[in-house]
Write a structure and sequence with these properties.
Length: 451
């Protein structure tokens, strides 16, 4: 009898504790905002109004479905994690899923001439990186965006796929679990490898940032390890053109004015990019630059000089014999290396960045000399002037210059020339660009022009 009474009291105690925990969890969940937000909307730390929207995505096969959710509370949230029940239709699951917390970065140098639709963050912080942290703590009254990406394979059956996004963690020490349904409508068209050439310039010297800032030697095992990680990320975002400088990567020997070149490091980096599908074409890094940091002044070229047992790149005029002797040997050797690897047809050479009318003559002089050495090597350039007809093979005007001289560039295309365009620190105002203060739709609008 006593044993039965003890057992009954124990069970009653467990039920009371469980009920209390359940009530505490429900109470905690009521103090949390968890909503879906259109992924083309930027969410700031102080954003607090989220009208109801259904988490739906319409996609073609071969695309990715993107979702954005927000989490906010007046109390601290700890050990927040995200999981996804794979969207499913009948027996087919979409299990290529990635999740991440969106990080915020401060903007201390706002766009000098913003457009009329620029976004103003009261806190001065803007959403930018998608962090791969498995868990995160969220401060009180701070809105935390969460990103979910679902890969849609090219052979996916069309139809509606239903999944679930689950957020768990602790609110002021109390466990919580919240969920939202996601719907993905897959349509018949298939997106395969893009025909659009996309390049994002990067600094190979900053590879250590992927290694949490821990430095390593150029061309060491760590260097190649992180170069491959970078290549994977480039390909993941459909970059298919990569700038690599054979001038910077080569090893040199010289005796009595006769140069020999070792392109092993250049070749290895190109091969990594090809293996990870980040390369469809190669941009050869610039051989020239403006002299004396004078924007309107003439271009000079870089040549290697040995200093204290190390090779460093100095700049001199293309008119000097030393420059012509070096490049007279460098470019034929580079062309041979490209041919031996089967890369000449996908290689494009930069001369010097963003020529303008006032330094046109020095640009033409350098380019004409290079063309005399390797006439089959295509010249590509970001340019601020159209006065280079007959010199450039692949035009890359800044977007505003493309707009100003569109008839000229259309004629170039009709003549068989390639015309790309680019954005950088300009154009500003109402032009589409990738400034962090612009709405995300501006990045999408950029590629409408490609049609």
């Amino acid at each position: 009898m006593k044993k039965s009474l003890v057992l009954l009291l124990t069970l009653l105690f467990i039920i009371i504790i469980s009920s209390g925990n359940a009530l505490a969890q429900k109470k905690a969940e009521k103090q949390i905002i968890f909503e879906y937000v259109d992924p083309l909307k930027k969410v700031f730390p102080e954003t607090s109004y989220f009208p109801f929207e259904r988490a739906t995505a319409d996609v073609a096969r071969g695309e990715h479905a993107s979702f954005q959710f927000v989490l906010r509370s007046g109390l601290p949230m700890e050990n927040v994690s995200v999981s996804v029940v794979a969207p499913q239709q009948r027996d087919t699951k979409l299990d290529g899923i990635k999740t991440g917390f969106v990080g915020f970065v401060p903007v201390t140098r706002p766009t000098p001439s913003p457009g009329r639709d620029y976004l103003n963050s009261v806190s001065g912080y803007y959403p930018d990186p998608i962090l791969e942290n498995p868990v995160m703590d969220v401060k009180p009254t701070v809105t935390q965006p969460i990103w979910v990406t679902v890969k849609i394979p090219e052979n996916t059956e069309t139809g509606n796929y239903i999944g679930e996004v689950i957020i768990t963690g602790k609110l002021a020490g109390k466990k919580f679990s919240l969920s939202k349904t996601i719907n993905i409508q897959v349509f018949e068209p298939v997106i395969q490898k893009t025909s659009l050439w996309v390049t994002n310039w990067y600094s190979i010297d900053n590879l250590s940032r992927i290694n949490e800032g821990v430095e390593f030697e150029d061309y060491s095992d760590d260097y190649w390890k992180y170069a491959r990680i970078m290549a994977k990320k480039m390909a993941e975002y459909r970059q298919n053109v990569v700038m690599i400088s054979p001038l910077d990567a080569a090893n040199y020997k010289v005796k009595n004015g006769r140069w020999s070149f070792d392109f092993s490091n250049f070749n290895k980096l190109v091969n990594i990019m090809i293996e990870e599908e980040a390369i469809g074409r190669i941009e050869g890094g610039h051989i020239g630059r403006r002299g004396f940091q004078d924007w309107s002044g003439p271009f000079v070229v870089k040549i290697p000089r040995e200093k204290e047992g190390k090779w460093e790149l100095d700049t001199i005029s293309i008119y000097q014999d030393e420059a012509k002797n070096f490049y007279g040997q460098f470019f034929p050797a580079l062309e041979t290396n490209l041919k031996d690897n089967g890369w000449l047809d996908i290689y494009m050479q930069h001369i010097a960045d963003e020529p303008i009318r006032s330094n046109r003559d020095s640009y033409v002089e350098i380019t004409t000399f290079v063309n005399s050495l390797v006439p089959d090597m295509k010249i590509i350039e970001a340019c601020h002037t159209r006065d280079l007809d007959g010199v450039i093979d692949i035009w890359v005007p800044q977007l505003n210059f493309l707009n100003d001289d569109f008839d000229f560039y259309r004629e170039q295309m009709e003549q068989g020339k390639e015309v790309w365009f680019y954005t950088c620190l300009a154009p500003q105002e109402n032009y589409a660009n990738r400034f962090i203060q612009q709405p995300l739709i501006k990045t999408r609008i950029l590629h409408i022009r490609n049609q």
